[in-house]
């Protein structure tokens, strides 16, 4: 994964198994589903206008502290069907527009994250 700039907006390049390259540009909806991602791409924080993010059906085992620190406009995050074992306590804090957070299938999480500041959360 590399971070770059194209056309004045932030962009991320994801290399999956060295064969596939896709540009993810800010803003809006981003679909990173079915990419066999092993790690949470922390460069997501650079996409400040991101509103919807799909990470389902990957191999992500951990969501780090302050994972979405730079994404205050996020409304929907789909993490279902990942073997998530750890979620940083502050991973989802201060996302005032977050409406939907899907962690279905993450049965190995020992401690649920602090949802402080997620005042719009309706679907968990």
Kindly list the characteristics that best describe this protein:
124 residues, four-stranded parallel sheet, disordered N terminus, leucine-rich repeat
Order of helices and strands: EEEEEEEEE
Task: Give the strand tally.
Answer: 9
Q: How would you describe the shape?
A: globular
Q: What number is the mean pLDDT?
A: 80
Radius of gyration: 14 Å
Structural class: mainly beta
From the N-terminal CA to the C-terminal CA, the straight-line distance is 29 Å
Helix content: under 10%
Order of strands across the main sheet = 4-5-7-9
How much strand content do the residues show? 25-35%
Helix segment count?
A: 0
Biggest sheet overview = 4 strands, parallel
Stretches where pLDDT falls below 50 for ≥5 residues? 1-9, 15-24
Pfam family, one: LRR_8
Protein name: Leucine-rich repeat-containing G-protein coupled receptor 6-like
Keywords: Leucine-rich repeat, Repeat
InterPro entries: Leu-rich_rpt, Leu-rich_rpt_typical-subtyp, LRR_dom_sf, SLRP
């Amino acid at each position: 994964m590399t971070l770059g700039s194209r056309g004045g907006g932030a962009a991320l390049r994801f290399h999956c198994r060295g064969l596939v390259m896709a540009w993810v540009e800010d803003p809006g909806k981003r679909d990173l589903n079915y990419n066999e991602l092993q790690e949470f791409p922390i460069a997501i924080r650079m996409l400040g206008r991101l509103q919807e993010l799909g990470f389902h059906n990957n191999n992500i085992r951990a969501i780090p502290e302050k994972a979405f620190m730079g994404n205050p406009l996020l409304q929907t995050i789909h993490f279902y069907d990942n073997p998530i074992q750890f979620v940083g306590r502050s991973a989802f804090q201060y996302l005032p527009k977050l409406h939907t957070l899907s962690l279905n299938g993450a049965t190995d999480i020992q401690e649920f994250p602090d949802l402080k500041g997620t005042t719009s959360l309706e679907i968990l």
